[in-house]
Specification:
By secondary structure, the chain is mostly helical. It has 4 helices and 2 strands, in the order H-H-E-E-H-H.
Length: 134
Amino acid sequence: MSSEAALDRLIARIRELGHLPERIAPEVARELDKQLRANIAAGRGPDGKAWPLRLDGGQALQNAGAELTVRAEGSAVVATLRGNAARHHLGKAAGYKARGIVRRILPSRRLAKPLVAALKAVVLRAGGKVLRGG
């Protein structure tokens, strides 16, 4: 293959990177879902900090994963909560609001480092595959 043809192939691959967000959004959604569910199971927020325990000393929101949905919409990833988990996330759960107890489930500002690392790995893996011609 001539160097000109090789350069043309590389340029075509680089142009493919522009379509990467739409192509990998489903994979990013799966990884985000996995990470958020791991946090819920461990009783911690998206920042890695442990949630306040329940009044009886038990772990809070053990079933919050059932109220979590993470999906890809075009190039965006949307995570939503329903029911009791949403009320806790917003600090509006009955009985907890007056005490100022909030149990964040979804990231609201910046993504925590472990979550960034997991999502970055997905992006780099997919980008590398495109550049290698895979």
